[in-house]
Amino acid sequence: MAFDVIAAIDQGTTSTRCLLFDQAARVVASAQLEHAQHFPRPGWVEHDPAEIWANTQRVIEGALSQAGDRVAVAAVGITNQRETTVVWDRATGEPVAPAIVWQDTRTQAICDALGPSDKYQERTGLPLATYFAGPKIRWILDELHPSGDLAFGTVDSWLLWNLTGGQVHATDATNASRTLLMDLDTLAWAPELADELGVPVGMLPEIRTSAEEYGRVQDGPLAGVPIAGILGDQQAAMFGQACLEPGEAKNTYGTGNFLLLNTGTEKVLSTNGLLTTVCYALPDTDPVYALEGSIAVTGSLVQWLRDNLGLIDEAAEIEDLARTVDDNGGAYFVPAFSGLFAPHWRPDARGVVAGLTRFVNRGHLARAALEATAFQTREVVEAMNADCGIPLASLKVDGGMVRNDLLMQFQADILDVSVVRPVVAETTALGAAYAAGLAVGFWSSTDEIRANWTADRKWQPAMDAERREALYADWRKAVTKTFDWTR
């Protein structure tokens, strides 16, 4: 007998997934496909929007095929890599350029010409940086001069457009808040900002809440099913982790790391290098905001060791290799491949390995790579504590790297707080499912989200304070060696 599920499309930086969740937040079925990463020039990172759409269709079919006739899909939720920018022709539905990925730094000259980094921070919560979508749209228009009736979208909008057969051009407030074009107070596009950035307002999608029916799937196995939830990936992870009260925080360990702290309905502007962003916006309620620390390179450093250096054959091997040594051997890996994001915001930085001696071997480099993730997270936590004045008591974690016990223990050690992994590790997809399920009544309230969350494992700090601070001091010294590499 069929039972209802919510389908979540999780379109990430390296892959696209479709997961089916039942009412108890259990994964009923899933399918995943990676897509190609294109690096045409130093600092440039691109995806093929057509490949992403094709993979989305395939993973939907794969998840539904795996589930068979056991399920009836009540609604679809979408979560996505956020700032990655797609521009397409409304008439043909064809992209006019490759998608410019959030890690891409080609827009630095545009940002420099617009003014100081804090120029739009009070209005948008964001520094003027290559990370965000607005300058990426401007680059496509300036450099490629596309013609026709153009539409812009982050990847959620691109998928929504295609799923609805070109009928719906919309986004939610969490994704819109990553463009440098949305007013954080009104959750509306700011025409004067769009004009200053050289982006026609007519290209922009309609901004909607995170949990409402946007439209219905037009074709394929989900035809007729409402698309009812959209959240940017990190906000979706907050929702999936049930971080719904002010003061609750989570850290997602993926391609990059993203630590968010729920600040409630209060918009807290950072003075320590963090972002102010929309955490979620539900219908008929005030929007909820968050402070965010965005780290560009964490899991992708492990991929780099695998793909570029051949240090490992599979990403999961990094832990075993790191366990062949007792410590980092004095080596520190600062992976500033695309500059440094929070809390430094140094686009001029480039990656370094510091402290090398003849003693250092493959195991030490593997360990240094894992420790880099934990050190960068501590930098963000310290900035967050300074901004909000509330020291972090514990940290909820999710993402692919949380299966690495060595990393999680070191994270607890270097932060000196407990680190908690939930039973359902697929929190990003689950957050999108929750948003869609709330919109269609599959879940009655956020109380059910809280009730579904349970801890799987907790790591307690076990490092003495003197060693903790000595390691962190050396890390901070290594970070300074990355500065001023580009001009």
Structure description:
The protein has 487 residues and is an alpha+beta fold. 33% of the residues lie in helices and 24% in strands. The protein contains 15 helices and 23 strands. It has helices at residues 49-67, 108-114, 121-124, 133-144, 155-163, 173-176, 191-197, 233-240, 299-307, 317-322, 362-388, 405-415, 427-440, 446-452, 465-480; strands spanning 3-11, 15-21, 27-34, 46-47, 71-80, 85-89, 99-100, 150-154, 170-172, 182-183, 188-189, 206-208, 211-216, 226-232, 249-253, 257-264, 275-280, 288-295, 332-334, 352-354, 394-398, 418-422, 455-459. The strands form 7 sheets. Strands 17-18-16-15-21-22-23 form a 7-stranded mixed sheet. Helix 8 (233-240) crosses helix 13 (427-440) and helix 11 (362-388) crosses helix 12. The chain starts with a strand and ends in a 7-residue tail after the last helix. The model has no long low-confidence stretch (mean pLDDT 94).
